[in-house]
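Record type: monomer structure entry
Structure origin: computed from sequence
Chain ID: A
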Amino acid sequence: MNSSKKRGGMRLYLFAIGQSMEEILNIKIPNLNKLLFGAISWREDVENWEDVINKTVMHCNKLRPGIDNGILKDEYVKSSISEFKRIIASQVAAD
């Protein structure tokens, strides 16, 4: 089963994307809270997010240990996000 279909799965997936933005964009981000795509059109914004989703969606099952049994489990969430980030970094390095 896709982890985004389990309770809390989409929230965890979006959190993992946020935590992985340095790996996804392959740049150092000093403050994730101030990350912006810049002054771009709505269409460009959608294209940017499509790229982010396309780079990450195939790896969302790596987050499953963090949501098993329908609840978020902190120790599994941290290790799942760490694994997700590692895979994204390898993928970006290979591109």
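Annotation 1: The mean pLDDT is 84.
Annotation 2: The CA atoms of residues 45 and 85 lie 23 Å apart.
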